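pasting Nucleoside diphosphate kinase for the record, 206 residues
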Amino acid sequence: MMADENTATSSQPVENRSADPPIFKHLSPKTQGLLQKVQKHRQEQERQDLNTMTANEQTFIAIKPDGVQRGLVGDIISRFEKRGYKLAAIKLVTPSKEHLEKHYEDLSDKPFYKGLVAYMLSGPICAMVWEGRDAVKTGRAILGATNPLASSPGTIRGDYAIDVGRNVCHGSDSVDNAKKEIALWFKEGEVISYKHSQAEWIYEKP
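structre below
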């Protein structure tokens, strides 16, 4: 996140006058400094309002090896973007067996566990973090049901998958699990915080 510019003091005129109205250059340095402080406070308040509107909930979404190999990455990203969610992190990875066993440790007693891990090891995975209001719940709705045959047309799995063992993508099933999965797949500093320029066109101010 970029640091704020230094606030002008009573002895310092505002440096960037090109964006200021012509009358601004006729004001005293003290008045310029006061106006800059007011502007910065207003901008900070707007950022806080947008943060309140979006709630900043994050979810972990992974495009599995079949989705990557079939060239579905661009379309899946587009669906989240068009819905209004903000991409906070993305990378193409080939995780280790130990990493995947950690990710799916809650399924370790299931008969399909070994096959699932082997499938996830078969190719690169596109790991992402998406951010916005109700990102976890809505993210899973965008993906569709775990079994593609039970997924509605218009969802990712409903449009692009048939077999539950090749269901294209993974999405966090709870806010708590999203936090755990994000921490597992991304290092500190890889999840980026920034102002979403379209937020005011997506969320109504309270």
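The chain has two domains: 7-53, 55-191.
The first helix runs from residue 29 to 54.
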